[in-house]
Design goal:
It is built from eleven helices and eight strands. It has about 280 residues and is α/β, with parallel strands linked by helices. It has one domain: Vaccinia Virus protein VP39 (Rossmann fold), CATH 3.40.50. Helix 1 packs across helix 2 and helix 2 packs antiparallel against helix 9. The termini are far apart.
């Protein structure tokens, strides 16, 4: 299974830009659109899943700020800053919330600098309330993220942080040791920190062939990809964490707003929020 090369430019599909296209954004290229066309042929509800996943992120951030008292966020594999991203949701509730975004696509970083222009710069120990920062780094190297000077200028790791790994871990097959990566990141965070994560699954799909075709479509775009069961995802990401209600559920069922919701089979993502320590 090929590794993703973050320096490729625009000729190869990239998860951040594929996700952007699924959400109706403009920050994508032909390779990304072709990859999504193949995915939609295999899994026609992929857009529904992406949008429900995005809505889950917003609800999780609102919960963490309004109910759990979290004011710091580390969003890895964040993709392009867009409407209702982490900093917008968190800072709409408490303007003092601080956010660091991480992605390995240099084009994401360039776009982020445009969109986040005017945000206050880091100020070392006297951190600026409401600061938002963006760094180019790869989840495959968690130490480089944790010791990045911009992260250290923006977040205080002696205080609780919400680690956001939303719709990213399925790009890490077992041989890439995603469990070890998550454990490394969580070990660096203070007790009382949280993990917000979502992951694609075939648990809701009656036709195993459909799920296999969807995975194959992503592989054909040159990207590693692995769907996981509820038990596999829990073991990978949430071992030792206390899950906030309602636990591990389809992302559309995690503290949803009133009104109709798609069937789990149309969503295809699990999501949960877990707390480190008691």
């Amino acid at each position: 299974m090929p590794d993703f090369d973050p320096e490729f430019g625009t000729a190869q599909a990239h998860p951040a830009r594929m996700y952007d296209y699924l959400l109706g954004g403009q920050d994508n290229f032909e390779a990304d659109r072709a990859a999504i066309a193949g995915l939609l042929k295999a899994v026609p509800s992929a857009r529904t899943g992406a949008r429900e996943n995005r809505a889950f992120l917003g609800r999780a951030v609102r919960y963490l700020v309004a109910e759990a008292g979290i004011r710091q966020f580390l969003d890895i594999g964040s993709g392009f800053p867009t409407v209702n991203n982490v900093h917008e949701v968190a800072q709409s509730i408490d303007p003092a919330s601080r956010v660091v975004y991480v992605d390995n696509d240099p084009l994401v970083l360039a776009r982020a600098r445009q969109l986040l222009d005017g945000q206050p710069a880091g100020a070392g120990p006297g951190r600026v309330p409401g600061q938002t920062a963006f760094i180019q780094a790869d989840l495959r190297d968690p130490a480089a993220i944790l010791y990045h000077p911009v992260l250290r200028e923006t977040l205080d790791l002696t205080q609780p942080v919400a680690l956001m790994l939303v719709a990213v871990l399925h790009f890490f097959p077992d041989e890439a040791d995603p469990a070890g990566i998550v454990a490394h990141l969580l070990a660096a965070l203070a007790p009382g920190s949280y993990l917000v994560a979502s992951h694609t699954t075939a648990d809701f799909t009656a036709d195993a062939g459909t799920a296999a075709d969807g995975v194959q479509a992503v592989h054909q775009a040159g990207l590693p990809f692995q769907v996981r069961t509820a038990a596999q995802f829990t073991g990978l990401a949430f071992g030792g964490l206390r899950l906030a209600d309602p636990g591990l559920v389809p992302v559309s069922e995690w503290r949803p707003a009133d009104g109709p919701r798609p069937r789990p089979a149309e969503v295809g993502y699990y999501g949960a929020v877990g707390r480190k320590g008691y």
